Amino acid sequence: MKIKIGTALALIAAGSASPAWATDTFTLEGFGAISRGLGGAAVSLDVGPAGIMSNPATLSLSTDSQDPDSNSQLLIGLDMIAANIDAYDNTTGAKAASRTHSRNRGPYFAPQLAYIRRSGKFTFGVGAFAQGGLGSEYGKNSFLSNGLSGAPTGLDISSRMFAFDIPAAVSVKVNDRLTIGGSIDAIWIGLNLNEQLQADQVGSLIGSGRVSGSLGPVLGGIPGLDAVHFGLTRNSFLLNGVDGWGLGGRFGFTYKLTPSTTIGGAYNFETNVADLKGRATLTAVSTVAGQIPLTGRIRVRDFQMPARLSIGITQRFGPQILITAEYQLAFWKHAMKNINVGFEADAGGDINVLLPQNYGNQNIVAVGGAYEMGSVTFRAGGRFASQATPGDTLLAIVPGIPRYHASAGLTYKVGKRQAIDFAYSHAFKERVSNDVLPNTSQPISITHSQNNLSIGYRLSL
Q1: Residues 157, 145: contact at Cβ < 8 Å?
Q2: Above 90 in pLDDT, residue 173?
Q3: pLDDT value at residue 6
Q4: pLDDT-derived band of residue 310, with 50, 70 and 90 as boundaries?
Q5: How far lies 173's CA from each of 57, 115, 123, 138, in Å?
Q6: Closest CA to 362 of 314, 302, 404
Q7: Helix (H, G, I), strand (E, B) or coil at 390
Q8: What is the CATH number of the domain that holds 334?
Q9: Residue 133: closest CA among 15, 18, 33
Q10: Is the pLDDT of residue 179 over 60?
Q11: Which of 59, 107, 174, 345 could lock onto 178 through a cystine, CB 3.0 to 4.6 A?
């Protein structure tokens, strides 16, 4: 009955989540407030039921650390994310600020929900977590909404991507030193997108063979073509222009080298999500004929979250102090080579566009420490990452560029069976510039900083 309740709660959370802004490109920098307070480190220590998202093998550590009279834990939590994003025209100095222009955007909220239960050497778990996302909202009146002529189009420039993960996991305590675990995950990805390409960007894409279909020559032949706009957005907290379901998963281990030293590792598979499908409007903007909208069906092909390898070590100094360090390698190079869009107009004709991204693999180091003092545990951490987003393919609507984070957190135990976890992390301002076609017409720079709050309630049952 408890497992059924946990599964039901996971599905409810999946249906009620709002989007989260990601900080390791598109992915959150940690799951649960314990990990977040330690800079996102999680694979070699007990981070509670949220460990189901980082290393399922740690679930055995979590049940081992509970009240001896208890054999299960419930986590209910929430991430609250506020991003500060600005785009600049490096030629004119014009600024486009990403703010809350509609119900479609932040501040962003992401749920944390997990239930784990021990049965002998096995620990089973189910959860529902935001895996990551992105969001920008530049509105309709910035320089990003102008055509090549400089004339305003009044068309919206914005984005929202949300990846939601529902894992089912098992962990096995092989012996007093070794635990192993794995999960199979249902993955849902939803995407809103309002993107405008100026006429020279369209020409560059056509010239480089990145546009195909019968509508390509039609667009290229429109007199006075100024811009082309793709609109695939539903202005709602929950609904998206396109979405799709698929599978993911991970496996991992922990091993006690000594009673006070634990190593751990995990591998997250690249997701296998179906093409994201929905309705869209393709609008050609002409200085001669005005705006020419075409409605139709659209799909974003092979949009995936990357594989990730994590290796960590945790050292305890007595019962009160621990230090942990972790290295992660996110395989963005394979997952994000292009944004592949296909559009079929209701009136006939189609167009396929490949927007180059060419992300690089991302190297990440997370470090953290904790000090337990009675019923309160204090935490602090840092996170340092390489830049995955190349400057020459930067899109203003996809500025997943922060690299450095500082975090702090605490846990307050309420008796033996209840605990409240809290963490705050700050992503320091990062700037990336792009001055080449096809992803920008004019030289631009994007800056992005961010504040994240995470709170969780854990109950031993």
Answers
A1: yes
A2: yes
A3: 40
A4: very high
A5: 8, 18, 8, 50
A6: 404
A7: coil
A8: 2.40.160.60
A9: 18
A10: yes
A11: 174
CA distance 460 to 67: 7
CA 98 to chain centre: 18
Burial 217-248 (b: 16+ CB within 10 A, else e): eebeebeebbbbbbbbbbeeeeebbbbbebeb
Q: How far apart are CA 197 and CA 219, in angstroms?
A: 12
Which residue range forms the structural domain that includes residue 340?
A: 2-460
What are the CB-based long-range contacts (under 8 Å, 24+) for 145-151?
A: 145/196, 146/198, 146/227, 147/198, 147/199, 147/226, 147/227, 147/285, 147/287, 148/198, 148/199, 148/200, 148/226, 148/227, 148/441, 149/226, 149/287, 151/226, 151/287
In angstroms, rounded to a whole number, what is the distance separating the alpha carbons of residues 336 and 215? 26
Residue 6, token pair as written in the block: 């946990």
Residue 133 to residue 39: CA distance in whole angstroms: 19
pLDDT tens-digit profile of 320-330?
Answer: 999 999 999 99
Q: What is the identity of the amino acid at 406?
A: A
Query: 3-state class of 201 per DSSP?
Result: helix
459 pLDDT exceeds 60?
Answer: yes
pLDDT for 13: 40
Tell me how many domains the chain contains.
1
Average pLDDT of the chain is: 92
Q: Give residue 185's Cα distance to chain centre.
A: 16
